[in-house]
Amino acid sequence: VPCLKGAELERKVNGMFSFTTDGMPLLGESAEVRGFWSAQAGWITHAGGVGKVVAEWMVNGTPSIDMRECDIKRFHPHAHTSSYVRKRSAQQYREVYDIVHPRQQMEEPRGLRVSPFYGREQELGAFFFEAGGWERPQWYEANAHLLADQDWPDRKGFNAHFWSPIIGAEHRAARERVVIFDSTPFTKLEARGPGALSFMQYITGNQMDKLPGSVTYTPMLTESGGIKCDLTVVRTAEESFLIVTGGGLGMHDQAWVRSHLPSDGSTRVTDVTGALSCISVWGPRARKLVQQVSEDDFSNGGFPYLAAIRVAIGDVPLLAVRISYVGELGWELYVPSENALRVWDALWETGQPLGLIAMGLGALDSLRLEKGYRLWGAEIHTEYNPYEAGMGFAVKRNKGDFLGRDALVEVTKQGVSRKLCCLTLEDSGLVVMGGEPLLIGDRVVGYVTSADYGYSVQKSIVYGYLPTDYANEGTTVDVLYYGERYHATVVREPLYDPAGEKLKS
Known about the structure:
six-stranded antiparallel β-barrel
């Protein structure tokens, strides 16, 4: 800075820095001690922002910007051990000024949390990413032979790191045949007790007063109407609910649920993640596969969409939930972990003549973007309300009082000033990474929340919030990617199977 040439440093600071296991601060109220607040591991340059958001948090219950990546309650139990803290925090210190790829994985410690299928996944050549301590296959080298018919673009440069064209082959298999997906890392909570229904009605935005065996997608909201998280809820009995939410930030969601439990003890919440594995079976041949390994009725009439039924796969009893995050016919199979490998092997052996493959997370992301499914932490978080995010269908204001309802009533009166939009890039061979500015003229009007290539629709997909004046089909927006502007057009969503016929067939 030229004007500082020759200036003397009148005051110097040379102090200790705190490095956490993920490099982010520790902010917010303790999960163990009510009223005990933390504002730690923030650098001097962050001090003003830390003070502002923590003050808002203490006074208003939530800060004005989403702090999920800084929340002190975000860590799973293994992340509190001294060994883990030393290894991860030391690496954060070493890399603090490095250029680290967004998809680059920590190398140590690994293998902390693995599903019962981990050995099978290794045999299939899984390339593992890690989230919340879980080892999660991103793609499988065993599927490389499916690339013979590849007609999608390869990636180059920085965006090609930690990516494989095999992801496209796995995506196509889910659309055309049938795939098996390890959903075990989902955080699974049981809410039980005579007050469970009242509790679930208050803490969620959707209607929970449904018959046992019903499945409901819902947000949980902050007092100001922001989306604290989104999840699937299964009513397993009159006084029992199974809450299923994301794996990586499961502790964040669990802390929110527990912090709102009634003080009279009428509802108990238990984490059953480790005890209950989950295998997802998705694709147009999914019914044919599960029907061959079970004597139960998986027909459309006998097992409708958004139903949960206790069935048996061979001689293993389990809970089958008809739902799909990829927009195809399918089920999530919740099975006790001690029996889970037996179910995986039965599905695998029976599924080979049907073209069954194992699918990784990379394909899941492109599949869900083609269907317009939101991802918490990207398209949705506390800075957005359900109407901005296109999730108004998952909120039932007429069900009675619930957390965030008053704020949503005000939103409906005033209207929204921005909307989440689906855009496709004019250059279908370019895939951006997320976080890029969205420009109209020289004005930044938003940023990319998620992006990927749609291997079925053969378009490069971008999602982002736009002011309502620009959130109309046909509007042209520029995406700024590595200093270059690329044209994108707002399109109607979802791009794939807009009527949802495949999902409900």
